Amino acid sequence: MVVGELAHERDLIIIGGGPGGYHAAIRAAQLGQSVTLIEKEQLGGVCLNKGCIPSKVLTNSAETFISMKKTEEIGIESDSVQFNLRKLQAYKMRTINQLREGIKALCAANKVELLAGSAFFLSEDKIGVENGEQYDVFRFKHAIIATGSSPNAPAGIKPDHHRILDSWSITSLEILPEKLLVYGNDYIALEMAFAFNAYGSEVTMVMDQNDFSFDLSINRELKRILKKNQIKVIKSTNISSAYTDGEAVIVSLENKEDSLIGTHLFVSSIPTPNTANIGIERIGIEKTESGFIKVNEQCQTSKPNIFAIGDVTEGPPLAVKAIKQGKTAAEAIAGIFSEADFRFLPIVAHTRPPIASAGLSEQEAIDQGYEISMGQFPLSSNGYAAILGKKEGFIKVIFDKENHALLGMHMIGSGAIELISSGVLSLEMVARDEDLLFPLYPHPSINEGLLEAAEALKNQAIHLPLVTKKERLKV
User: What is the tens place of the pLDDT at every residue in 359-405?
Assistant: First the structure.
C-alpha cells in the first residue's frame, strides 16, 4: 500500500496495551469513544508479562514458603517443605496467560478494537501500523501514547539475562542462584533480595546511597530486618564493572580493592522511556531533557489532540500512575474535566514484611517547614499480629501540629500494602487526627494498629506504656 493512498478512520488510537493503555481504552469506550488499541508484543505490556505480575508471583511464593516452614508452631505438621523454581515458573505463565485472556475479554466486551503491530506517527492525525508484511494507515481524531519504558543498566554492566539479570529477566530464572548480588536500593531490588533470600540464596545488596528512600523510621527497621535475615548490605558505592567467568559473576566496586563474587547479579535498572521509532520527533511533540514526553495535568502533549501516559512521562515508573493517567486522558478526550494528581501516590514494596508509604516522610515534612507531631505503634503490641506470628514492623502517622492535618502515613509489617489505602484516602480528604480516632476498627485486626498509632499522638494508646511529658519533649 502506498502511504496516503487510503487511511482508515478512527476516533481514538492508543499505542501500547499495558495497564495505562488498556485502562484508557476501556474508559474511553465507556464514554462512547470508538477505540483502537495497538500493541506490538503482548497485551498487558511490561507490567503483566515482565514486571509487576511476574515479580509479585516471586514475592508471594517466597512469603508462602517461609510461612509454611513455620506452620508446626500452629499445629500443622509436615515432614518437609521443598521449593521448586521450575514449577513456580509454570504457575507464573498460567497466571499471566489467564490475566491476559481476561484483558482481551474486557476489551471485546467494550468493543475495543485490538490490533497487533508497530505504530508510528506519520503526521499529527495519521499513524502507520506495520505487522509483518501488512502495512496500514489510520487517520485519528485523538491518540494516546502508552509505549512504556525499558530497563537500562548502569555503565559498566551489560545484562546477559543468564547470570547478569535485569528486572525483566530475573523473574524467568529456572535455577536458584547460590549467591545473588543485588545492585540497587529501590523497591524492586529489595523485593528480589528478600524473595531469593527466602528461597535459600545467599544475598548481598550493593547500593550507591547511604540509606533507603523510605521514612527514617522504616529505614531503621528495614536495616534491622535485613541483618536478621542475613542479607548483607554494602552502602555508598557503585559497581564499576561486572563480567561472567564460567559459573561466577565478578563485580568490581568503586574505591574498593576487593571484588565481589556471586553466581548471579541482579541490576535494578534505570527505566528508559520507549519514545524511539514512534515518530514523535517528526510531528514535534516536546520532550523533557531526560527524554520523557511533556504532558499537562490532563496528560495532553504539546499537540492538543495527542496525549501521553505511563512510563513515557516523568515520574515514578509505576502501574498505578499509568492507570490513573490513562483514565484521565480518556476522560479529557471525552470532554470531562479530569486531572492526574500524584501528591499522595502510594509507594509499596512486597518485601518480608511489606512496606507502604503515602504523603510526606518525617524529614520531608520538617524540610517543608512543618512543625510536626507523630504517633507510632509497633505491631508487636497488636493482638492479631501475634496470632499471625508476624509481629515485626509498625505503623507511623505524621500530623501538622498547628492544624492537626495528616501529612504522611508509613508502615512496615503484615497488611501494610492493603492498609495504606486508608492513608491515601485520609490524605486526599485532608483528615485531622480526630478523623482517625473517631471511627470503629474491626477486632482483632492489623487495622487497630492504625488507630493506636493515632492514639499515640495524645498518649492514649491502650497497648503502649504511658509516655511522660518529659519523655515526649525528648522525642
Answer: 999 999 999 999 999 999 999 999 999 999 999 999 999 999 999 99
161 classed as catalytic:
no
Between strands 394-400 and 406-412, the pairing is antiparallel
Phi and psi of 357, rounded to 5°?
A: -140, 150
pLDDT at 5: 56
Is the pLDDT at 155 greater than 50? The verdict is yes
Task: Please report the pLDDT score of residue 79 as a whole number.
Answer: 75
Which DSSP category does 375 fall into? E
Cβ neighbors of 278 (< 8 A, separation 6 or more) are 15, 119, 120, 121, 145, 147
pTM of the model: 0.93
What one-letter code names the amino acid at 412?
I
Q: Which of 21, 13, 14 shows the shortest CA–CA distance to 311?
A: 21
Helix (H) or strand (E) holding 129: strand 126-131
Sign of torsion over alpha carbons 319, 322, 326, 328: positive
Catalytic residue among 8, 161, 162, 443: 443
Domains and CATH numbers, the chain: 8-151+272-333 (3.50.50.60), 154-268 (3.50.50.60), 353-468 (3.30.390.30)
Closest by CA to 311, choosing from 119, 46, 118, is 46
